[in-house]
Design a protein that fits this description.
Layout (H helix, E strand, L loop, with lengths): L23 E4 L16 E4 H5 L3 E6 L6 H13 L1 H5 L5 E6 L3 H10 L7 E4 L4 H6 L2 E2 L2 E2 L2 E6 L2 E7 L10 H7 L1
Parallel strand pairs: 3-4, 4-5
Antiparallel strand pairs: 1-2, 3-8, 6-7, 8-9
Length: about 170
């Protein structure tokens, strides 16, 4: 008889699924007083399951803030097309990574983002592990559209490039 706890198998999300209960991220909300990149702010919990239940959301994940693929190939598309994405009825665009909330806040500031997009941490990579979309110990590179709690698009990158998780693919799915 084993005394170790059972570990649930990853459960990848797909179109038609409900966004899971109990998903929480952490972030540092933008405030004008904490606008400087060296200003830390106070991390707060973000109950994604609750917040996404009544909104249309684009959520994308990157393996790490300030990394070449994420900063050069992935994030810029979402920043460049933010108005177009929101014009499709999207209430919230959020990016998650394994980095802590302060690093994610600094990454937002370094990219000139205030509160028009959320930069959050997938605490302990819990959500990404639960859905089986990781890159080692980091969050994977993926994107999903959640429409009032229902997944309408969920794609995990099959390789190292930005294809199915990029802003262009998400726009086509909206």
């Amino acid at each position: 008889m084993s005394t170790s706890p059972e570990i649930a198998a990853p459960n990848p999300l797909k179109a038609g699924d409900s966004f899971p209960d109990g998903v929480k991220f952490s972030y540092v909300p933008y405030t004008p007083e904490e606008e400087a990149i060296t200003s830390c702010g106070k991390p707060q919990q973000f109950n994604a399951s609750q917040e996404f239940a009544n909104k249309k959301v684009v959520l994308f994940a990157v393996p790490g803030a300030f990394t070449p693929g994420c900063s050069v190939r992935h994030l810029p598309g979402f920043i460049d097309h933010l108005s177009e994405i929101k014009s499709k009825g999207v209430d919230l665009v959020a990016v998650i990574a394994f980095n802590d909330a302060w690093v994610m806040s600094a990454w937002a500031k370094a990219n000139g983002i205030k509160d028009e997009m959320l930069f959050m941490t997938d605490t302990d990579t819990r959500f990404s592990k639960d859905i089986g979309w990781t890159k080692g110990d980091r969050t994977g590179r993926y994107a999903m559209i959640i429409d009032h709690g229902k997944i309408t698009y969920a794609q995990n990158e099959p390789g190292g490039d930005v294809t199915v998780s990029g802003a262009d693919a998400v726009l086509k799915a909206l």
